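Page 42, continued from yesterday. The earlier attempt failed because a stray header line got pasted into the input along with the sequence. Redoing it now with the clean sequence only.
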Amino acid sequence: MGDAGQDMVGLDGRVTGTVGPGLVGEVIVRIRGGAEHFLAYPAPGTGRLPVGTVVTVVEHQPPRTVYVMAAYGD
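This time it went through. C-alpha cells are written below.
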C-alpha cells in the first residue's frame, strides 16, 4: 500500500498565500511534471512565511494539504 504522501516530503515550493500560525496559506509545488497548488500550514516551530518564500514540504496530508518550513535559513 505505502504512503502516497511520502513522495512529496522534501520537495521545494514557493509560498503564494502567506503561511503562518493561525493562517491557512497556499504554496505551489513542482510535482508530476507540472506545478500544483496545495493548502499549507507552517511546520511546528515555524513562524510566518510571506509570499515568495521558498519552502520545503515536511509533511503531506492527502489530498491537498502540506506542512512547510523555509527551505533556507532566515
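Notes: The mean pLDDT is 91.
Reminder to self: strip header lines before submitting.
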